[in-house]
Amino acid sequence: LRTEGLTKIYGKGQNEVVALNNATITIGAGEFMSIVGPSGSGKSTLLHLLSGLDRPTKGRVFIGEKDLYALNEKDLSAFRRKSFGFIFQQFNLIPILTAEDNINMPILLDRKQPDKEYLKELSEMLEIKDRLIHLPHELSGGQQQRVAIARALIAKPDIIFADEPTGNLDSKSGSEVMKLLTSTSRQFGKTLIIITHDKKIAGLADRQLSIIDGMVQEVN
Ligand code: ADP
Ligand code: ADP
Questions:
Q1: How far apart are CA 24 and CA 50, in angstroms?
Q2: pLDDT, tens digit, 9 for 90 and up, residues 29-80
Q3: What's the gap in Å between 26 CA and the centre of ligand 2?
Q4: Which residues line ligand 2 (CB under 6 A)?
Q5: CA-CA distance, 69 to 162, in Å (whole number)?
Q6: Which residue from 46, 49, 81, 88 has its CB within 8 A of the most atoms of ligand 2, so it is best to mutate?
Q7: Sorted alphabetically, which SMART domains does this protein's record hold (predicted)?
Q8: Could you give the CA distance from residue 192 to residue 189 in angstroms, rounded to a whole number?
């Protein structure tokens, strides 16, 4: 993943906010990158631009040779479904579906057949094998997030984006979730890009980017 002069400006005139200022970033395939910075510094804006959820004011995002924002809406949305997995702070599970059906949702939305073997492998790695027939409210926060991680991985995307994945968890289940997220991502060779406030979690990554007032810098 590579960006060139990525810039996002919200508002106009006196209300103008430069949320992201001319960011040029390269993230290698299979790398684990964390993005840290205070509230309002531009972390979500950067994540949204990298993952095709929002359009930049200036600059470009390349995934391999693909110029993300040169795609029309339909192709962009198809590319996102194929190439990206998302994990959120609020687990965003569908309350009336079992863990297994939640995990398979990206496959079902694409009108493909669920891959039972891969689901078994993922749920073993994420330690939720015995929870697959349960509804989200029957699971702990950590278990719900592990279901959400399996859902992010099930369609075999290349890149996983996670926005404060442990923000709703206590520190013990938070570190458990992070351990399983990183080991599962590495096992399957995924690129992992996470936003976090937590310095300890940021430190687990191969590389760290810090953002302050929309300016991105690599932390050494
Ligand atoms: P973070 O994720 O680090 O908390 P954000 O990327 O959400 O930061 O926000 C960066 C800056 O852009 C902040 O000053 C925020 O107020 C502003 N911002 C974010 N979204 C919008 C929007 N839709 N309209 C106007 N300003 C916005
Ligand atoms: P929060 O910052 O409150 O934790 P989330 O991480 O759940 O919010 O969501 C971040 C942003 O991504 C929100 O603007 C939300 O609307 C958007 N979003 C959430 N789920 C999806 C999805 N499946 N596809 C596209 N956008 C999404």
A1: 11
A2: 999 999 999 999 999 999 999 999 999 999 999 999 999 999 999 999 999 9
A3: 24
A4: 53, 86, 88-90, 92, 163-164
A5: 21
A6: 88
A7: AAA
A8: 9
Q: Whose CA is closest to atom 24 on ligand 2?
A: 53
Q: Helix, strand or coil for residue 71?
A: coil
- Asked if residue 160 lies in contact with residue 85, where contact means CB atoms within 8 angstroms, the answer is yes
Cβ–Cβ contacts within 10 Å for residue 31, how many?
Answer: 16
Spatial separation of the C-alpha atoms in residues 110 and 64, rounded to whole Å: 23
Spatial separation of the C-alpha atoms in residues 207 and 203, rounded to whole Å: 8
Q: Please report, as a single letter, which amino acid is at residue 89.
A: Q
- The rounded distance, in Å, linking the Cα atoms of 176 and 144 is 12
90 alpha carbon, closest ligand: 2
Interval between CA 149 and ligand 2 midpoint (Å): 15
ipTM of the complex as predicted: 0.69
Q: Report the C-alpha gap between 40 and 211 in whole angstroms.
A: 10
